[in-house]
Structures are given as structure tokens and as C-alpha cells.
């Protein structure tokens, strides 16, 4: 289980040792600093999850340190100020700079522990709220009582109990973020932060700095590994990581430590890694997208998310869930789907998977009406095409969008040609051997006849 790391800064040795011993007995990991200079150095070596900071110290006062740290980080860890000679002005200034609370000496040990726990809980809740505002993700666990939905929850609970890295694979929109969040919430690090990043949005040196942080003359810039300390880092589109970033991630997984860009010392790796990719395991391992040794580390606990077209039995529950969400969160009218509409949903190939279904339910709710959604409305919302897949997600990286289109395109022609690869090759203008390789890469099958 992850242990919160706390830095205690106070120039009085008796208080430092007392607070350290109490917090250690309560299961926290504690480091101490006797001066502002020691506090700066300690914080540069390792980012704390919470700081107990004395106001009056011989070299630099706590207010100055608080001001420095607030300017360096957009989301600094909670800071609890402690002092035996505080003034109203110093208390007001500390609060203005973002201090979580103010404790007076002599310290009440019961109040100290209560304040520390509440500050850590508030920091976790703040991070969760920021994640929800950023992604608007309604699902907190895989939905569906069919065999696929049940299997995803069961597999999620199984791997959650083990702290090893997890590799999630599946087409775009199948719910990898939701499953990663579910695994985090079911595991021993559930009380810690859940931090996520798409490797497709950062590249080269930017990726390394974003994930591992950087040391500068002005102080450390903490990366996501330190911001996620005690919790989970979900690394989506892991196959988009640069070669250098892959090498650094591999070293961190092998040694349990990592180094910031331009850094001198090493930081402990106190985070669970969940990686996600829209490519299949075969392509990741042999297609050159990931180093083989990094793949072996990440794929110790592999989970594949099935596409929505293979989860027809979950469609009614998923549709109802999204309709409830639109009504409760977005204030849109709640509309049920009649039997004919549900049947039409089952016929659709869903190339955009859960994301496409959510958008469809939203469009039909915006269209309004107090009556149930009909098959004709579903047909119109899908573009009126019964055989040609639609709904490619234009918000995803180009490689993933191209793969989603190629899969939908080839599925359509395989169906049209009765699975005859030779005929599909003729229609698509491809050599048959090239088409076979393409089908294998996309996990599709056709008949060798014709």
C-alpha cells in the first residue's frame, strides 16, 4: 500500500522529532528539515505530499518559503503552518498564499493528526474534481451485465490487487480510461491521486520533462511521476512515446527510481503505471512501436477491451446509463429507446465504440421530445446508412483515426464480398499479400477463397 510522504520543517529539534515519531507511528513516511535551506533542498530531492511548515526560523521564514513554492507549482501539495508566536497578519498572509490550515504551539497531537488527514483527503478530492472537469468522464466502472461487462469488472478487480504495471489495449473509445480508473479505485492506491497523460500530446524532450520533471536554477519542476506519487499514472497512447522517454520509463520500472531531466539525484518511483494503446499486443511487441523490454514490463498484466460491436447484450444498459447521465448532469431531457430503436442499435458496427454511443444519445436528447426514441430517429442520427460504418472520432491522433477508418472500411467490404479476400483486394486496389498483412494487423479475418 502507498504511504503519504510528509516533510516537517521546524527549527526546534524536540518538536521535529515529536511530530516525526507521531506521524511515523500513524503509518506516514516522514522527513524533517531544521531550516529553510534544508527544506528547499529536501523538497528539491523529493516532492512531498504534504508539508508542515514553521513560520519563524533563523535563516528564512515560512511565509517566504510558502510564497516561493506557491509560485513554482500550479498545484502545490497542502501546507499546514505551525507557530508559537503567530500574528493575525502572518496568518492572513499564509491563508492568502494557499496554506491549508494554521496550528499553534504547543501542538495538540489529536488536532495535528486530524488536520493532516483532512488536508490529504482534500488534496485527493481536489485532484479528482479537476479530472472530472477536464474530461467530463461519466463512467466510473465498466457498465453492462452481459458477459463482456462482467468480465471487464472481474479482470479489473483481479489486476487491481497486484501492484505490477498493467497494459490496456483496445480500439479507440472502448473505455480504457474508465477501466484504468476502475483498477485504481479497486486497488491499494485508491486514496492516492489518479493522474493521466496521452503520450500522443507530447513529444521528444517534452515527453520526458512532462513525465519525469526537470531541475532548473530556479528549482525543480515536478513531473507526473511525482505528482502521481502514492497513486496511479495512466499513460495513454504509450506507443507514441519517444525512444528516449521509453528508455527512461524502462529504467524507472527496472530500478524503482528515476532522474529528472538535468537532475543530479534520483527520485523513488512510488506510483503504479497503467499503460494504454489502441494497437493490439502483437503490433506493440513486434511492430516496433515499443521497445521489447519495455513491452515485457508493461504487459505483465495485459487486458484487452472488446469493441462495442461485440457487446450487443450490454447496449440497453449502456444506452440507459448515458441517457441518465445526460439528464442528471447536463440537464437534457431523459429519453428511453423503444424496442425497435434498441434493435437498430444492435445492427450498427460502432466504429467509434462507447464514445460514438455517448454522442448519439446526447444528440437525440438535444433533439428533445417527451416520447421514446424510435428506430427512425436512430437511423437519421446515424446518417441513414445501414451498411457503411460511420462515427470516426476526429479528436484522436492521426494514426489511430487512420487505423479506425481502415478497420471500418475493410469490415464493410469483407461483409459486402462475403469474406472473400481476393474480391476485397480487387475492390480496394491492394495486392492480396499486402491485404492479408493488413487484416492480420487489424485483427480481421477473411476467407482465402476467391
TrEMBL record:
InterPro entries: AAA_lid_NorR, CbxX/CfxQ, CheY-like_superfamily, Homeodomain-like_sf, HTH_Fis, P-loop_NTPase, Sig_transdc_resp-reg_receiver, Sigma_54_int
Keyword Nucleus: no
Modified residues annotated as 4-aspartylphosphate in this record: 54
GO molecular function annotation: ATP binding; sequence-specific DNA binding
Span of domain Response regulatory: 5-120
Pfam family, one: HTH_8
GO biological process: phosphorelay signal transduction system; regulation of DNA-templated transcription
Keyword Phosphoprotein: yes
PROSITE patterns: RESPONSE_REGULATORY, SIGMA54_INTERACT_3, SIGMA54_INTERACT_4
Sigma-54 factor interaction domain location: 142-366
Highest taxon above the source species: Bacteria
SMART domains: REC
SUPFAM superfamilies assigned to the protein according to its UniProt record, in alphabetical order: CheY-like (SSF52172), Homeodomain-like (SSF46689), P-loop containing nucleoside triphosphate hydrolases (SSF52540)
Protein name: DNA-binding transcriptional response regulator, NtrC family, contains REC, AAA-type ATPase, and a Fis-type DNA-binding domains
Keywords, sorted A to Z: ATP-binding, DNA-binding, Nucleotide-binding, Phosphoprotein, Transcription, Transcription regulation, Two-component regulatory system
Source organism phylogeny: Bacteria, Pseudomonadati, Pseudomonadota, Gammaproteobacteria, Thiohalospirales
Amino acid at each position: 500500500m502507498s504511504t503519504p510522504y510528509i516533510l516537517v520543517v521546524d527549527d526546534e529539534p524536540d518538536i521535529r522529532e515529536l511530530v516525526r515519531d507521531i506521524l511515523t507511528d500513524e503509518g506516514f513516511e516522514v522527513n524533517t528539515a531544521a531550516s529553510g535551506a534544508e527544506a528547499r533542498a529536501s523538497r528539491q530531492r523529493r516532492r512531498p505530499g504534504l508539508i508542515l511548515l514553521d513560520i519563524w526560523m533563523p535563516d528564512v521564514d515560512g511565509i517566504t518559503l510558502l510564497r516561493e513554492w506557491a509560485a513554482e507549482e500550479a498545484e502545490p501539495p497542502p501546507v499546514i503552518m505551525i507557530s508559537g508566536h503567530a500574528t493575525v497578519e502572518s496568518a492572513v498572509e499564509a491563508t492568502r498564499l494557499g496554506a491549508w490550515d494554521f496550528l499553534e504551539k504547543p501542538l495538540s497531537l489529536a488536532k495535528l493528526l486530524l488536520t493532516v488527514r483532512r488536508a490529504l483527503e482534500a488534496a485527493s478530492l481536489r485532484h479528482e474534481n479537476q479530472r472530472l472537469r477536464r474530461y467530463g468522464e461519466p463512467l466510473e466502472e465498466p457498465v453492462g451485465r452481459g458477459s463482456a461487462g462482467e468480465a471487464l469488472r472481474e479482470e479489473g478487480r483481479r489486476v487491481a490487487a497486484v501492484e505490477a504495471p498493467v497494459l490496456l489495449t483496445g480500439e479507440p473509445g472502448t473505455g480504457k480510461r474508465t477501466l484504468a480508473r476502475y483498477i485504481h479505485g479497486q486497488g491499494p492506491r485508491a486514496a492516492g491521486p489518479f493522474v493521466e497523460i496521452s503520450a500522443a500530446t507530447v513529444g521528444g524532450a517534452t515527453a520526458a520533462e512532462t513525465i519525469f520533471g526537470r531541475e532548473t536554477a530556479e528549482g525543480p519542476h515536478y513531473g507526473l511521476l511525482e505528482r502521481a506519487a502514492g497513486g496511479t499514472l495512466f499513460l495513454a497512447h504509450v506507443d507514441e512515446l519517444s525512444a528516449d522517454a521509453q528508455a527512461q520509463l524502462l529504467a524507472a520500472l527496472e530500478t524503482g527510481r528515476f532522474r529528472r531531466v538535468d537532475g543530479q539525484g534520483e527520485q523513488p518511483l512510488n506510483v503504479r503505471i497503467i499503460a494504454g494503446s489502441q494497437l493490439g499486443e502483437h503490433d506493440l511487441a513486434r511492430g516496433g512501436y515499443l521497445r521489447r523490454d519495455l513491452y515485457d514490463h508493461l504487459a505483465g498484466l495485459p487486458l484487452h477491451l472488446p469493441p462495442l460491436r461485440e457487446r450487443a447484450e450490454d447496449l440497453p444498459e449502456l444506452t440507459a446509463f448515458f441517457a441518465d447521465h445526460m439528464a442528471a448532469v447536463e440537464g437534457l431531457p431523459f429519453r428511453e429507446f423503444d424496442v425497435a430503436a434498441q434493435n437498430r442499435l444492435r445492427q450498427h458496427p460502432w466504429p467509434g465504440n462507447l464514445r460514438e454511443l455517448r454522442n448519439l444519445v446526447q444528440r437525440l436528447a438535444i433533439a428533445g421530445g417527451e416520447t421514446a426514441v424510435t428506430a427512425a430517429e436512430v437511423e437519421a442520427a446515424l446518417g441513414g446508412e445501414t451498411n457503411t460504418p460511420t462515427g470516426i472520432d476526429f479528436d484522436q491522433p492521426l494514426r489511430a483515426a487512420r487505423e479506425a477508418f481502415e478497420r471500418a472500411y475493410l469490415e464493410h467490404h469483407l461483409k459486402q464480398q462475403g469474406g472473400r479476400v481476393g474480391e476485397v483486394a480487387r475492390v480496394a486496389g491492394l495486392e492480396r499479400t499486402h491485404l492479408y498483412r493488413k487484416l492480420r494487423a487489424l485483427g480481421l479475418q477473411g476467407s482465402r477463397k476467391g
